[in-house]
Amino acid sequence: MYNPKSSKAEEFINHDEVLASLKYADENKNNIELIDKILEKAKSGKGLSHREAAVLLDCEIEEKNKEIFALAEKIKKDYYGNRIVLFAPLYLSNYCVNGCVYCPYHAKNKHIPRRKLTQEEIKQEVIALQDMGHKRLAIEAGEDPVNNPIEYILESIKTIYSIKHKNGAIRRVNVNIAATTVENYKKLHEAGIGTYILFQETYNKESYEQLHPTGPKHNYAYHTEAMDRAMQGGIDDVGLGVLFGLESYRYEFSALLMHSEHLEAVFGVGPHTISVPRIKKADDIDPDAFDNGIDDDIFAKIVACIRIAVPYTGMIISTRESEKCRERLLHLGISQISGGSKTSVGGYFKPMPEDENSAQFDVSDRRPLDEVIKWLMELGYLPSFCTACYGSGRTGDRFMEICKSQQIHNFCHPNAIMTLKEYLEDYASDETRKVGEKLIAKEVETLENPQIKSTVKEDLVKIHAGERDFKF
C-alpha cells in the first residue's frame, strides 16, 4: 500500500501509485479545466502533489505549457529572486566496490586510474579552489569501506575546514557519499557538514537492481531509505536527485516528488535541494546505450514542473550541461550551479595527463569560474557565495520556515551582495570586477529595508578595506 509516512521504501515510493499517477496524468493531459485548477493552486506557491505535477508534465496544450513555464519563472523569482549560488565538486577518491553500469568508477573497470587524495593533496586542491574564489564545496567519493571509510571522509572534512589561504576559506562542505548508517550520519553532522546529497539514480526498483548488479548499492531499500537515516542522525538538510536517462523520465519525476512528500510527511522538512543530472559520456560509459534519454525541451519541462511542485527547494544544475542549456534552465527554476568544475580526483591543483584521466563524466561547460560569474551578471543574475544560513544555524525546518514564507530575501539578498563583493575584491578579473561593481550598486538599491540597506553599504566599505565574512 502507498503510505508517504511509512519508513519502508516500497511503501513511500510505491510502484503501483507511480503507475496510477502516470495513468491519471495521461488521461488528463488535455483536460483544460483540471489543468487550470492545478495551475491556480500552484500560483499560491504552496506546491503540488505528485499527481497534480504529473498532469502538468504531460500537458500537450501549447498555451498551457507557456503558462507552466511562465509560472515556474515567477515562482523561482518569488522564492530565490535573481540569486544564483555557486559551488564546486571535490572528488576525494574513485575507489569503488559497486557495479553501477552507468558509472566509470564501477569495480570491473580495470583501466581507469584509481586515485585517493592524501590530506596534503586535499590541501592543495582546496587552496586551488579558494584561489578561484569558491566558498562552498560538494565532496564526492566512491563506496569502498577499505579505501574510503567514514574516518577518511571525516578527516578530509576537518582538513578542508582548517585551510585558510590569503582571504580564502571554505565555509560549507556538502557531502555526496554512499548511503550509510545513522551512527555515521551523526558523525557527519558533528563534523559540521552542510547538505547531505544522495542521488537515487532511479526509483524503479526492478531497473535499480539491474543497474546496480553488484556491491552494497544493489540494496534498493537501504539506499532509498538513506535520507530517513540521515535525518535521524541529525542532518536536517538533505538533497535528492535522479540520473535522468536511466529510466522513464515520467516515472522518475513522480517518484522523486513522492520522496519529497515523504520527507515532509515524516520530518516536516522536504529536500533542501533537488539535482537534475542527465547521464553523460564517461571513460567506458556510452549514454546512447541507455534508451531513456531526454532532449532539452523535455528537460526544461521537468525543471519547470519540479520548481512549481516544490517551490521552496534549491535546484541544482552542474557543468554536465552546456552553457546554452544552463542559461535556459536558470530562468525556469535552477538556483544553484557549479562553476570551473573538475570531475576527476585531483583535477584542480594540477591538470591530469590524458592517460591519467579519472573523471566521473565529461564536463560540457568548461569555462573558468570568473567567466561564469561574468556571464551570470550579464544575464541579470546575482552570483552568490553565501553560506550564512548554515553559519547562523538556519537549517532544516528553520530554513524552510523563512523560505516558504518568502522571507529569505531579507537574509540571502544582502548576503549575496556582500559575498559577491568579496569575490570581486579578491579574485575577479578587471573586466568582471567592472561588471560586478555596477551590479552591486544596482542591487543595493533594491533592498527595501532601510536598516539592512544602510548596514550593507557600511559592510561593503569594510570589505573593500580588507574585512571578510559579514552576514545577516
Number of helices: 20
Low-confidence runs (pLDDT<50, min 5 residues)?
A: none
Q: What distance lies between the first and last C-alpha atoms, to the nearest angstrom? A: 46 Å
Shape: globular
Main β sheet profile: 9 strands, parallel
Q: Look at the helices and sheets and give the structural class.
A: alpha/beta
Beta-strand portion reads: 5-15%
Total strands: 11
Which whole number gives the mean pLDDT?
A: 93
Radius of gyration: 21 Å
Note down, in words, how this protein is organized:
- The protein has 472 residues and is of the alpha/beta class.
- It has a domain at 407-464.
- The protein is 48% helix and 10% strand.
- The chain contains 20 helices and 11 strands.
- The protein has helices at residues 9-12, 15-27, 32-42, 50-58, 62-80, 119-132, 150-162, 182-190, 205-211, 220-224, 226-232, 249-267, 296-309, 323-332, 369-378, 388-391, 396-404, 409-426, 430-444, 450-464; strands at 83-93, 136-141, 164-165, 168-169, 172-176, 196-197, 238-241, 273-275, 314-317, 336-338, 382-384.
- The strands form 2 sheets. Strands 1, 2, 5, 6, 7, 8, 9, 10 and 11 form a 9-stranded parallel β-sheet that branches.
- α4 (50-58) packs antiparallel against α13 (296-309), α6 (119-132) packs across α7 and α18 packs antiparallel against α19 (430-444).
- The chain is globular.
- The N and C termini lie far apart (46 Å).
- The model has no long low-confidence stretch (mean pLDDT 93).
